[in-house]
Amino acid sequence: MQDSAMLEGKVAIVTGAGGGIGREIAIAMALAGAKVVINDIGASLGGEGQSAGPAEQTRQIIEQRGGAAVINGDSVADWTSAQRIVQAALDAFGRVDIVVNNAGILRDTIFHKMTPEDWLAVVNVHLNGSFFVSRAAAEHFRAQESGAYVHMTSTSGLVGNFGQANYSAAKLGIAALSKSIALDMQRYNVRSNCVAPFAWSRMTSAIPAETPDQKARVAKLQQMTPDKNAPLAVYLASDAAKGITGQIFAARHNEIFLMSQSRPIRSAHRGEGWTPALIAEHGMPALKPSLMPLDRSQDVFSWDPV
């Protein structure tokens, strides 16, 4: 199958498509034959303000390349407006086949200084937004007995990172949401998968680059352009990915990873049961060799992108 025909006849909603990874996914889906709803409110990285400019730029790029797209400026972080996002696809193109939950903001702060407002703002956009838009599309997917969700998770949640309790919790929650959707909607031929993208974009531009090590890390990240994530998203949204559901992938420059999901890795058993003292004396020493290290995303993905 040609890349230009993989999404022929399909309608895709891409949230946060005014720039970065979302823009590249929207463009790639249009080039693959999909009609695209470009959802973006044009807010700052922290979620403040609103502008139609970024979404308009994405639309112009798609139309210049022969694709079809419309703009929607509703927020994903509200149930009523999320329904309007899905309705925009129905009004413009008569159906919806693909939802890409990409919209996001950042409010990075060390945990003991994080405000409730910073927590709620990030969780509302990433996790609640992914639920709201997915749920709004679910009735249509169920009725037509087809549909594909592609959710953006992050290794900040899957592995860990400093100063991102709000973002990490939301992104790990998205992985669980995706699995639940995959289980609940399999009977309707609806698929749900996650992508943990690696890219230098507005979402990573706040990474400090002061020390030599930090500067070297940023230089590596800058090689990983947002468009490197688009092919995997297009594939997962296409009929070529039939049977691929409930999975978590990562796209890092020219590498694609299948990520593990939580499963038991070691056990300790006592027929008589446990007391706190027995756990300290026997249980934990048995489990300790398999304890997970306190590592971060960059500790796990420590090699240079190739």
TrEMBL record:
Q: What is this protein called?
A: Short-chain dehydrogenase
In terms of InterPro entries, this protein maps to: KR_dom, NAD(P)-bd_dom_sf, Peroxisomal_Beta-Oxidation, Sc_DH/Rdtase_CS, SDR_fam
Q: Which domain of life is it from?
A: Bacteria
Q: Where is the Ketoreductase domain?
A: 10-206
> Which Gene3D superfamilies does the record associate with it?
NAD(P)-binding Rossmann-like Domain
- State the family named in the UniProt similarity comment for this chain: Belongs to the short-chain dehydrogenases/reductases (SDR) family.
